[in-house]
Design a protein that fits this description.
By secondary structure, the protein is mainly α. It folds into two domains: about 10-60, no CATH class; about 60-240, no CATH class. The protein contains 13 helices and three strands. Strands 1-2-3 form a three-stranded antiparallel sheet. A hairpin with a 2-residue loop joins β2 and β3 (about 35). α6 (about 115-130) packs across α10 (about 205-215). The model has no long low-confidence stretch (mean pLDDT about 90).
């Protein structure tokens, strides 16, 4: 076996030293120059390490605080969210842990409240910045995609709730806290002009919109923001899947719908 076996891993963020007697096991691991098990373990927090993994540098105190806030806000979207509901369905059906998490990722990956919506909203921030008139024009006359996409065409302005009547309280609370932690940037501007943007969009601001603004202020690209959104939303899906697996199908939540112009119950003769 070649003595250079340990040199075949090509990564700017990760370096390993192989054990002298077993080239398949690492003797030491370095993340962007930091000895993970010698320097970081027991000293760095999870959010700091997560930032280091993606950005290749330590976060400032302000960035760490804001990212921790965002992580708490996104950790559990709740049973009404499709990603959590999908994980609960897997849990109550006795599926494996991996199946529950994959179900959550699949249902929470798209352009309606999912990671892709955050990606699209972050692209809007990149192109429009903090130009209110550019936002108004973009929201009133959204541009059509110029090439075929993997994802279906979005039916609403990214970052806004297509079915909401008003901005949800958790969204406002999250925006306020994050803007306080990062007083200059997208978040504070969004807090100032939220109502004007909602009027142009015809929809209230939603959590993906706040998430996109926060991730932009934290220095993440749209691709990085999409990945982080998917990752940070998994804890709630896992917790609800575990809980639902214990409770069983008889206590699985089904949400009733109040239909406008409900025709009422249909008799068997009418069904025929």
């Amino acid at each position: 076996m070649s003595d250079n076996f340990g040199q075949v891993i090509h990564s700017h963020l990760w370096e390993e030293e192989a054990q002298p007697d077993n080239p398949f096991v690492a003797e030491a691991c370095y993340c962007s120059g930091y000895d993970v098990y010698g320097d970081l373990l027991g000293k760095a927090g999870y959010i700091e390490y997560l930032y280091l993994l993606i950005k290749g540098e330590r976060p400032s105190a302000a960035v760490r605080t804001a990212l921790e806030m965002l992580a708490v806000a996104l950790a559990n979207p709740g049973p009404r969210d499709p990603s959590v509901h999908a994980a609960m369905a897997a849990g109550v059906g006795g599926s494996t842990a991996a199946s529950a998490l994959v179900a959550a990722l699949a249902a929470g990956a798209g352009s309606y409240g999912g990671g892709r919506e955050v990606f699209l909203a972050m692209e809007q921030w990149q192109s429009k910045g903090m130009d209110l008139e550019a936002w108004r024009q973009g929201l009133l006359s959204p541009s059509k995609p110029t090439r075929a996409e993997v994802w279906p065409e979005v039916g609403h302005p990214p970052g806004f709730d297509p079915y909401g009547k008003r901005c949800a309280k958790p969204v406002l609370q999250t925006l306020s806290m994050l803007a306080g932690a990062m007083p200059s940037g997208h978040l504070s501007w969004l807090m100032q002009y939220r109502e004007a943007l909602e009027a142009a969009a015809g929809h209230p601001l939603a959590m993906p919109g706040v998430t996109a603004a926060a991730l932009g202020d934290l220095g993440f690209s749209p691709v990085e923001g999409e990945m982080l959104t998917l990752l940070l939303r998994l804890p709630g899906a896992a917790a609800h899947a575990l809980e639902q697996g214990k409770q069983g199908f008889r206590r699985f939540p089904f949400f009733s719908l109040d239909l406008e112009n409900d025709p009422g119950p249909v008799s068997l003769s009418e069904q025929e």
